[in-house]
Design brief:
The chain is mainly beta. The chain contains no helices and 19 strands. The strands form 4 sheets. A 7-stranded mixed beta sheet has the order 7-4-10-11-12-13-16, with no helix packed on it. A 5-stranded antiparallel beta sheet has the order 17-15-14-18-19, with no helix packed on it. The chain has a 4-stranded antiparallel beta sheet with strand order 6-5-8-9, with no helix packed on it. A hairpin with a 2-residue loop joins strand 11 and strand 12. It is globular and about 60 Å long.
C-alpha cells in the first residue's frame, strides 16, 4: 500500500529479501506519520507474488577493479537478449541502487548463454544456466551459486565455494528453522558419490567443509541438502 504522503527525496531499489523481485526504500525530508508512528525512512517489500523467473549476478574483479565496475553483461534466451552495464548502482538524489545485476526473465526457466565482459578486456561465456539463482562470478573463473527456496516468508539458502572445485568445497547454508540436515552428492545419472550423515542444526547460517567426495570423479555433480522442511539441490563441478 503506497500511502506515503511525505516529501520524498531519496529512493533506492534492490531485491532486499533475496526472493527474486525488487523492493524499494524511500527517505523523506519531512516526517511521515502512520498512526502513532513517525517515520522518515519507509521500506516497501514487494509482496505481489513472484511467479516469473529471474537471474541475479554479482561480479568480483581481480585483475580489474575489485567491484568490477565497467563490466558488461549480456544474457541470451532464445531470440531475446538482455544487456547490463555493471556499475556502482546509480540512483536519485543522495541514493544508490544495488550494483548487483538483476534480470527479469518472464517465463524463461533457463538462460542459453551468459557473456561477461570484464573491464580489463577478458570475456567469459557460460551456457545452459538455470533461472532463479544468485550467481557470484570472480574474474579468475570461480563461481558461487546461491539457491533460494521459499518456504512462505522463510527461505533455505545454500552456496559452495570454490565451484568448480578439485578436492574440497566449502558449503554454506542457512535455515529458517531448526531441523535435521543431511547431504549427499550424486552424478548425472543419480549415483551417490559422496555423503554426510544427518545432524541437527539450529536456525541460522552454518558451514560444512568435511563432505566426503569421490576424488576420482570428474564433471558435473549435484549436491543435495535434505531437511524435514525441504530438499535443495545445487549444481557443482568437480575436476581432477
Amino acid at each position: 500500500n503506497l500511502d506515503d504522503t511525505g516529501r520524498g527525496r531519496g529512493f533506492a531499489y534492490s531485491d532486499f529479501d533475496n526472493d527474486g523481485d525488487l523492493d524499494f526504500v524511500v527517505v523523506n525530508v519531512n516526517q511521515h506519520t502512520s498512526g502513532d508512528e513517525v517515520q522518515n525512512v519507509l521500506f516497501y517489500e514487494n509482496e505481489n507474488g513472484n511467479d516469473q523467473n529471474w537471474l541475479k549476478i554479482k561480479l568480483e574483479g581481480i585483475a580489474s577493479n575489485r567491484d568490477a565496475y565497467g563490466a558488461y553483461l549480456k544474457i541470451t534466451v532464445g531470440d531475446k537478449t538482455w544487456v547490463h552495464d555493471y556499475n556502482g548502482g546509480f540512483g536519485t538524489h543522495a541514493s544508490q541502487h544495488s550494483s548487483i545485476a538483476h534480470f527479469g526473465l518472464g517465463n524463461a526457466t533457463q538462460i542459453d548463454e551468459l557473456e561477461v565482459n570484464w573491464p580489463g578486456g577478458q570475456t567469459m561465456n557460460f551456457e545452459n544456466l538455470d533461472a532463479n539463482q544468485f550467481m557470484t562470478i570472480r574474474e579468475d573463473g570461480q563461481i558461487v551459486i546461491t539457491e533460494v527456496k521459499e518456504l512462505g516468508k522463510e527461505k533455505i539458502t545454500i552456496s559452495a565455494q570454490p565451484n568448480p572445485f578439485k578436492e574440497n568445497t566449502r558449503i554454506e547454508f542457512s535455515l529458517p528453522k531448526s531441523t535435521y540436515v543431511s547431504f549427499d552428492v550424486v552424478d548425472a545419472i543419480g549415483k551417490v558419490i559422496g555423503e554426510k550423515e544427518s545432524a541437527w542444526y539450529p536456525a541460522g547460517t552454518h558451514t560444512v567443509d568435511d563432505l566426503i567426495l569421490n576424488k576420482k570423479y570428474s564433471g558435473l555433480v549435484f549436491l543435495r541438502l535434505k531437511t524435514s522442511l525441504q530438499t535443495v539441490t545445487l549444481k557443482l563441478v568437480q575436476y581432477n
